[in-house]
Amino acid sequence: MEETLEKYALEHINDYADLIKFKSISAQNLELPETANYLAQIFSELGAVCVKKLGAKTAPIVFAEFNGNDPTKTILFYHHYDVQPPEPLEKWDSEPFEPTIHEGKLFARGASDNKGELIARLLIVKYFQAHGGLPVNVKFFVEGQEEIGSPQIEEIVTQNKALLKADACIWEGGGKNNSDNYQIVGGMRGISVFDVEVRTADVDLHSSLASYAENAAWRLIRGLATLRDDQGHVLVEGFYDDIEPLSDQEIKAVKNSDFDLEKVKKRAGLRKTISQDPKFELVNQPTLTINGLDAGYQGSGIKTVIPHLAKAKLDCRLSPSQDPKKIATLIQAHFNKHGFADLKVHYRLGELGFRSEMNDPFVALVLKEATKIYGKDTKYLPNSAGGGPAEIFGKTLKLPILAFGVTYAGSQVHSPNEHIRLADFGQGTQLLGEILTAYGNN
């Protein structure tokens, strides 16, 4: 294929800009059915032979199927149309839901995660439909609740195995790593999300009573401090027991990766780190982190009280072999054992991790095509540091899953001024077109 798809993608990047304008925030249950309706219409206009909405009407999953020139081969695209809230709004240089192109970049909430990636793949279908047809069958699975843990996915995938049958799955996106080398990712870590709560009284008390009254905020802080040391090592008994070691092939891939901590520190203004070479930790070691704390008076002015209630939100990123619910249970057992039984763990959600087999032929094909475009510094990572519902697809549908796309490590995902670089958008779209063509010719 000549490099016309890259040019086409850049010329048509605004064709589906309306997708970005939907405030499809799953955490706030905003504009999810409206976004799904828009996507269903677009898929129909592109010539899909099947378009369906699956699951809850409040946040429908949109499925679409396109026939290709080789009817014996099928690629499944996984995406999500929901986004994170845009706050803090004052940190944005442009309106978060108004796509803005500036200095070779497209800025908007969802520009990277995940609407920009989805637009690239819509343009691939549009391009091929106008240039002889798609090389292989293509299916889209686009959900609207990824940012809140994909609560429908297991049931929907299990119920629709025949509908979703494919030979390989290309995940929602990715692209260039923090060293600006293109990276193919074969899976993701798991996640366990939970709250911790403690009550020390029925009501807030006057702060003068601190001579004898326990403070829920202090109690929570002391309990949380027993979970981890200053180097990030989790002190919970059994926390590391279920980690399966990487294979020799996977170890080699991680060693060959080029994570640059100094670049990350500079880009984020990161003032303190707990590891000097976290490459292996990012792939196969679990973490425990505090997402937020809530206790007492936090309004303007002064209010001298002793909080009676304190809460914390935490998550653990897990090795693909670890069970999310078990991790939350271990943390409650830790509190009980160490004199903090009054700290209660409330499990919220979890996702198992997943890792594709590195020796799968589809992995070799994708790496070959990526190297043609991005050169010998193209990398393969067994799994990402982040999470997602890939395990449900891999286990249920029995197919390899690879994540790659049109973004880069500096895209500021989930942050103000989220963006993609137009050059990456063009190149990444070209790559996926080359992969579909090569797979059809394989």
Task: Provide a descriptive summary of the structure in words.
This protein has 442 residues and is an alpha/beta fold. Helices cover 31% and strands 22% of the residues. It is built from 13 helices and 21 strands. The chain has helices at 4-11, 18-21, 32-45, 115-130, 153-159, 216-225, 248-256, 261-268, 279-284, 324-337, 361-374, 390-397, 422-441, and strands spanning 50-54, 61-66, 70-80, 100-102, 105-107, 136-143, 168-170, 175-176, 183-185, 187-188, 190-199, 205-206, 289-295, 305-306, 309-318, 344-351, 354-355, 379-381, 401-402, 407-408, 419-421. The strands form seven sheets. Strands 1-2-6-3-7-19 form a six-stranded mixed beta sheet. Helix 4 (115-130) crosses helix 13 and helix 5 packs parallel to helix 12. It is globular. The chain starts with a helix and ends with a helix. The mean pLDDT is 96. This is Acetylornithine deacetylase succinyl-diaminopimelate desuccinylase-like protein. Residues 196-339 form the Peptidase M20 dimerisation domain. Keywords: Hydrolase, Metal-binding, Protease.
CATH class of the largest domain: Alpha Beta
Total of DSSP H or I helical runs spanning 4+ residues: 13
> Largest sheet at a glance?
6 strands, mixed
What form results from the Cα inertia axes?
globular
Instruction: Give the neighbour order of strands across the main sheet.
Output: 1-2-6-3-7-19
CATH topology of the largest domain: Aminopeptidase
Gross CATH architecture of the largest domain: 3-Layer(aba) Sandwich
Q: CATH homologous superfamily name of the largest domain?
A: Zn peptidases
Structural domain tally: 2
The percent of residues in helical segments reads 25-40%
**Rounded to an integer, what's the Rg over CA atoms?**
23 Å
Number of strands: 21
What portion of residues belong to β-strands?
15-25%
Distance from first to last alpha carbon: 15 Å
Which residue ranges are poorly predicted, with pLDDT under 50 across at least 5 consecutive positions? none
Keywords: Hydrolase, Metal-binding, Protease
GO molecular function, one term: metal ion binding
Protein name: Acetylornithine deacetylase succinyl-diaminopimelate desuccinylase-like protein
Organism: Ligilactobacillus apodemi DSM 16634 = JCM 16172
